[in-house]
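WARN retry 2 of 3 for item q-0093 after timeout on previous attempt; input resubmitted unchanged.
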Amino acid sequence: MAKQIITVIPGDGIGPDIIDATIKVLDKAGCNFEYEYADAGLTALENHGDLVPESTLALIEKNKIALKGPLTTPVGDGFTSINVTLRKHFQLYANVRPVLSFKGTKARYENIDIITIRENTEGMYSGLGQTVSEDGNHAEAMSLVTREGAERIVTFAYETAIKEGRKKVTAVHKANILKSTSGLFLKVAREVAARYPQIESTEMIVDNCCMQLVMNPEQFDVIVTTNLFGDILSDLCAGLVGGLGMAPGANIGNGCAIFEAVHGSAPDIAGKNLANPTSVILAAIQMLEYLGMADKADNIRRAITDVIETGDRTTRDLGGTHGTSDFTQAVLERL
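OK item q-0093 returned
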């Protein structure tokens, strides 16, 4: 059987360190992948004069699977988010952000297990129609929600719930005020929910959802929502389990997927062997599940769970005193 080829984008800042750690973990787990490396972000701008070179897009297109470290988008005019660019280019319409409590993280909660599924290509976040008047006193942007986009993401959420043995899907919206865009999303969500009577369906206004996530997060199982709300809620969920260092993300489309660390590139600690690689290792676990390699995914998850729970060579953000390489070695030993 031909080896699965993975496009690897090390990224900026701490990206190369935590991606390197993750590759070691995948190899030790016996995944038998082949890797083809590509640049994006500031590294690509320096090397190729472009944040997302055509060669990188071509490699993702060829291999259909990518593992990506954090990227830096320069602040200022003329630079659009690289992540938004990749999502639109490959029509990666579903953003899947699971958060799971790990004992030993000193997080505020102990039994969180929530998947946030976010529409990834439409809505306010996609940056359509952004204009600022010449005098700088008037700014506008446009939110576009389509029936097709809403139906696709809500269906994806219910299918994920069934596949993962989940019991409940909560559609999060602001249809009380944004009656057109959020209203359409909610209407379609209700229609889709009716097709899945075996799953409990609830709906919640986004501001109430934020409060409920802080006060009683255990009530949530799968959350499905629009692009901007999902961006905010998924980070809130990460805060429940110890921060962005513990939160992976998958961007999934029809036949193409990019798995990533969702935190920033942390240039202040780049190259200092301090970063916690957990987020991108968890993203690699998502990638393995996507590829139907659940046994390998489970092995890596068990190893990482044990390292964090026992506090064996954990990084500073987990209350330890060790660095990337020590933490990675502790995971490798368990594998």
